Amino acid sequence: MIDLNIKLWSRRSHRWISILIAVPLMVILCTGILLLLKKQVPWVQPPTQTGSGESPTLSFQQILQSASAVTEAEIRDWKDIDRLDVRPSKGIVKVRSKNRWEIQLDSATGAVLQVAPRRSDLIESIHDGSWFHEHAKLFVFLPTALLFLLLWLTGIYLFWLPYRVRSERRKRVKHAESV
Question: Domain 46-118 is of which CATH architecture?
């Protein structure tokens, strides 16, 4: 009787949970695929260029001056810069503006090597739910992940159940034959 209740509960919860989490899970899956491919898909994240130097020699003022020359990035002062990413082995400094444009500078000369929109940070914020609302991360996407875990567990149970039933049936048949 208990086994029947667990089976029934698993089937019902599996069905209703999958309907409940369908949209947030699709958002998580699609953005996760894009994030997995961010190094291979230039539309998501610009490929990293290689500069001429092996150690950065630019001052912060030179970095700001070079980045300010790029009109797409809309950089006028340090408040317009989200972050700097220094890659000594590649000889570059990546400047990410607040409007999501990335400027790659040669760390020795300050020359602009590449300017392109960087969508990976936006995709990541959609992936974790923070793009929608600050509470969406904890109150929509976290419950979706927990419900997906429950969905996985009920799915494993429902997958395993026919094998268990067949095994018990074989044991009963063997026991009946031996009696």
Answer: Roll (3.10)
